[in-house]
Amino acid sequence: MSKVRVATMWFSGCSGCHMSFLDLDERLLELKEALEIVYSPVVDIKEIPEGIDVALIEGSVNTTEQLELLREMRRKCKILVAFGDCATTGNIPSMRNPIPRDEVLREVYGDGNPPGMEEGEVPALLPQALPLHAYVQVDYYIPGCPPDSDRIWKFLSTLLKEGKPRLEGEEIRFG
């Protein structure tokens, strides 16, 4: 039996969702038997491969580069999962949304580019930081800031056993 091909991606957020994924601890060994991580910030793979079964994407979409990567991942995966509250609602990164983009950039970088950066080296900041579903179809949501490892485990193990994950009750709360 072939393994489920999984990708993870991290946009604007704190990486807490990936830390919770790693907090699966010994359960990672169990998952290793059923899935293969084919793209992730926790492995050294540079190109998004074709044929991804499940993509877990953390963080809100904040830059043009993130938007391009999100659209590429959507094209290359069967199931796209908003992983955590930032990916689901925009959460903390979206707190900048009421402030005009140019004002945000001026406050962070002054009147010029980031120190040591040439014009265009930094991906352009989008007008707002938005959740994944603002740009692409999202198939499932794993809420939490970050989602605890038990919630991630239930989602993935149910997906692997039944082909359709199920979160309910306390498992679907935010924060």
Tags for this entry?
single chain, 175 residues, alpha/beta, five-stranded parallel sheet, 32% helix
Verbal overview:
- This protein is of the alpha/beta class and 175 residues long.
- It has a single domain, classed as 3-Layer(aba) Sandwich (Rossmann fold), CATH 3.40.50.
- The protein has six helices and seven strands.
- It has helices at residues 16-22, 27-34, 64-76, 85-89, 101-109, 149-162, and strands spanning 4-10, 35-39, 52-58, 61-63, 77-83, 125-130, 140-142.
- The strands form two sheets. Strands 2-1-3-5-7 form a five-stranded parallel beta sheet, with helices on both faces. The protein has a two-stranded antiparallel ribbon with strand order 4-6.
- It is globular.
- It starts with a strand and ends in a 13-residue tail after the last helix.
- The model has no long low-confidence stretch (mean pLDDT 89).
